[in-house]
Design brief:
Elements lengths: L1 H26 L1 H17 L11 H31 L8 H23 L13 H30 L4 H22 L12 H35 L3 H9 L8
Helix pairs in contact: 1-3, 1-7, 2-7, 3-4, 4-5, 4-7, 5-6
Amino acid sequence: MIRTLLIWGLLAGLCGGLLATGFSEVAGEPAVNQAINFEDTQAKAAGEPEEKELVTRGVQRSIGLLTAAAVFGVSMGGLFALAFAFAYGRVGRASPGRTALWLAAGAFVVVFLVPFLKYPANPPSVGDPDTIGKRTELYLAMIVCSLLAAVAALRIRAWLAARRDATTATIVAGLSYLAVVVAAGLILPGIHEVPKNFPATTLWRFREASIGMQAVLWTTIGVIFSVVAQRVMTGAPVLRRRAAASGLVASPGD
């Protein structure tokens, strides 16, 4: 069963990566091009020599972006499948399909959105190349803090749910997660490398596209995997079960 879930998780991640690439091409590329033009203009004004591209822009926005998004999507899909196999039946009592949807929404918030709020994405031409290692380490540290806080919050909810009502347990767990990630965000150093004269509209649109790409990725993974998980875990497709409940088709026991 886990093998089947893992395979479908990889496929769902691949589909999510491909759709996210299409979204990026439409919503993100204009902002990236504007950022590159800004960098070229600044370099010319400073009299800096033009650097030769190791990889052309056309390759970057086509094969490069497609490959990166597909690899990232497959990786996230595989990890998602393993997380679902662990969480189902242990966290809440929702159906497999609903669990997958909740897990995808949680992954979007915990793995991407919260770290993004502390360290938002910048266009490729923004930032000091010498600090990319430090920036990557800080971003990963924020992801780890968010994940650990989420795990702790789930444990707190499970402990409280056995002693209090589910609503109280959920609220307390959510507040505990929020407190930890806010503290982590305040403790970790900030990064401010966007030039003051960089177009604010370009920066905003690029970050909007970054959020949109992740939303497309996790929505696709969640929707596809929810249908598959429902079938794998119960042996009945979601659509057939709903139709049987509505009396449109005969249920297996009729």
